[in-house]
């Protein structure tokens, strides 16, 4: 049934129901008798920490995997999907947390991959392009259908992923972290699209670690913890404290800047750095920016999407070229040094996209952890398995990775633990300065607290830390100093106690209320 012809009088009807769903993997019980309802024309938000079972439940509902026991009913009839194609044929589509795009293909080809529009003479590329332009207009994104996905920034790739899911005219649309790489303006557009879809009778399942943001869109909330439902509630009856309490308990620590020590000398000095737009327009996305960071200091760089945060960090790390300016580490210039040479000097970067730039998916947890420090256990082209194992075991303990061991597949870890592997890989090189671009992207509040607690511990040991964020509430998590970027420049600097409204105003963000 098309979304456009859903019965308006059925808005509160349960369209899909999961009852007593159990899923086991060996001795691990990922879901423990879960009961879950999806209502027609409503947004059901599923909250829970990484590893709570959210993704497992959604994979069952979308045909990626089957339950060990329990049953699912759709429109009152029992169903069991053997594949995602079968689920899609029943009107269920999913936007996965990690992007599943083919980077070498165009936006158009990605949207219609596997279900191309065909005529008697072949694929109708013109019609696919026309429909792609309609989707991009609906999402208020000016992206040409012929643009290769690899040429898009991460937020635009997320928009393409959303457009692909919208293109199948689903009755039930599952959104797993759809806003993790979107700007505030893009999130606003997405929420408008969601409300348009629900008004037409489409049911939305929404999963997000951006709790305050999710509260804006939810109609019905469900909290999953350790494979079990711990709470359900209507939007009018819940708030942020209710979500946090049911997710992690009453003792959640939001974090604070580490203290009890004096900062050391200047570790990183950025002088009049300029970075040009990657699109070749000649515009500066980082415009004569200067910044000093001392040993033991944690600096948060806040700004809206497009403020130049990522470009600044990547230019410092040597990933993108500078148009002008200079970067010094402990007084020594890094000019002309490669990424590897900068790592050797003690400057490392944890990139924004851990899947694409931070991890090697075909390698194990241990291999990923040791990758940046291979010289520590290699002698004359021969590797020492014992030395590598010692390094890996120490890294797992150091950054508190929850894993069965160094030999486990990296894909078996939750998003938060994968992020800790990326951080642990860089810390294993014993850096003097660590840069982290959106280190909490796509991880839950518990994992965020662990990551920021780890940064606090390392800063107390003398490590200089700079992390960027587009979430204003994270500015207060652990930073000694908050630097706000706007249009490639520093627009303000604050201490840790500044109200978030002042941070938002300095970034050019509208402050509501």
Note down, in words, how this protein is organized:
- There is one protein chain.
- This protein is globular.
- The protein has 16 helices and 24 strands.
- Helix 13 crosses helix 14.
- The protein has 513 residues and is an alpha/beta fold.
- The longest helix is centred in the middle third of the chain and has 16 residues.
- It folds into three domains: 167 residues, 3-Layer(aba) Sandwich (Rossmann fold), CATH 3.40.50.300; 68 residues, no CATH class; 201 residues, P-loop containing nucleotide triphosphate hydrolases (Rossmann fold).
- Strands 6-9-10-3-11-12 form a six-stranded mixed beta sheet, with helices on both faces.
Q: How confident overall, as mean pLDDT?
A: 86
The CATH topology of the largest domain is Rossmann fold
How does the major sheet shape up?
Answer: 6 strands, mixed
CATH architecture of the largest domain: 3-Layer(aba) Sandwich
- Class derived from helix and strand content: alpha/beta
Question: Which CATH first-tier class of the largest domain would you pick?
Answer: Alpha Beta
In CATH, the homologous superfamily of the largest domain goes by the name P-loop containing nucleotide triphosphate hydrolases
Number of strands: 24
Percent range for helical residues? 25-40%
Number of domains: 3
Contiguous runs where pLDDT drops below 50 for at least 5 residues: 1-11
- Tell me, briefly, the overall form: globular
